[in-house]
Amino acid sequence: MGLWYTEKHRLGFGITYKIKRTLADEQTEFQKLELVDTEAFGRMLLLDGLVMTTVFDEFIYHEMITHPPLCTHPNPRRVLVIGGGDGGTVREVLRHPSVESVELCEIDRRVVEVCREYLPETSCGLSDPRVSIVYADGIEYVKNAEAKYDCIIVDSTDPIGPAVGLFSLDFYKSIYRALTDDGVFSAQTESPLAEPDFVRKVTHEIGSVFPVCGLYTAAIQTYPGALWSFTIGSKRCHPVNDAREVPELKGCRHYHYGLHRAMFDAVPKFARELLPDSFV
Amino acid sequence: MGLWYTEKHRLGFGITYKIKRTLADEQTEFQKLELVDTEAFGRMLLLDGLVMTTVFDEFIYHEMITHPPLCTHPNPRRVLVIGGGDGGTVREVLRHPSVESVELCEIDRRVVEVCREYLPETSCGLSDPRVSIVYADGIEYVKNAEAKYDCIIVDSTDPIGPAVGLFSLDFYKSIYRALTDDGVFSAQTESPLAEPDFVRKVTHEIGSVFPVCGLYTAAIQTYPGALWSFTIGSKRCHPVNDAREVPELKGCRHYHYGLHRAMFDAVPKFARELLPDSFV
Asked: Which of A85, A110, A193, A215 is most buried, most CB within 10 Å of its CB?
């Protein structure tokens, strides 16, 4: 039979994976970190028992959190990624030829180190000369920045423990201040099917800070609810009308320009109904 | 701990459900049929051990297989549903005021009987006077019909055992002949993420029979791959340009007119690349 790992969610539902081998298993300063090799999805990173990323399907999440904000901004040069220690989001940011610098602000140095060792396909971009890594609390780091970044991407874990503050009104206000005048931010904002009340709360908070906002979704089978959401907050640029087609994104496997233009309209009704009326 | 049911897929992946109670468990003439009450998704129908439908999220599948073809046809009056013994698709068909008759062709009488007893929210439409139920093999039933239906919906199980023939070129040719001149058909066509080769094969077969075709997706967490696909084949009407906004669909929870117009463009790149170039 072999070893199976089951991520159980509240209410009697879980996703179970056959494990070929455990490659890392440690308690870091911040969380329980495991890196396992699974039969179905290849190598997989777990933090506090929750699946963060798998080699098989990480492209869906990383392309979808990155390209919508960067294609909405007219010329993104300076980008900040908060969280995202596996490096997948940084890898996607680097596809954009306009980008001159990417800062990765990750609280847990061990996440970066373990992903560098065991997830080379995901973490490869971290060695790029345009990238600098800061090991710090994203909340404090953003608070001390002003009009500095063209795009900020909040690639956080679920809103439990240390990540709670990454889904707060004060944090969104700090992000607003840390962005330049054309600034665009995106964040993963959980599942509208599994966590509708949370999605309602978070989108209303983002909508109270940013004048132009939108929510879009992607299907990710390793996340509870499967229908996963991302929210864009923009100071000025419109995420559909101002969207640019970036030729360098031809190598993407999920994102494409037609999808970008359609994805806000393609949100299911039960998810749209959670959003402020002002969302695109 | 209680009892958990795990639907395991090939390659070491499964979805597991806490079971409160088993309501039906029998071997019918055609398949193993179980109806259980789950903690996370309410009542759930399983056929041959595979999750078919749950009270919690059946609206996603049933709205998405039904409304795109019926809103593409200018005036659907006669509709045939093949499979779909739980009645959810019939319930959605009946939202369309133009519909005068719905035939449900289900091979297994016990599926209808058990769903009528235990899934009243899903099966409610089966008692409508416009509905007639035929217990027959859908392949044979369609073969004997000619220019009879405005829409045909193939709401089948996975392409294993008795359902294999519902994913064949001959069957699509029979459907074409059974449709009127403006006829539109839809089918569930599995997951482009979990079964890319299958999706490629089936869409090319449908594309070789119908002049106007398109594929669209929905996230369904209880199906392997989570990104689920549906394919439309149409004799004449264009599924985007000819799409009608039907006011009676305001009560839907997933489908809406904006989604219909956007959903073909919102298909992820890895799924689009499986399709014939002729697809919309």
From this structure: A85
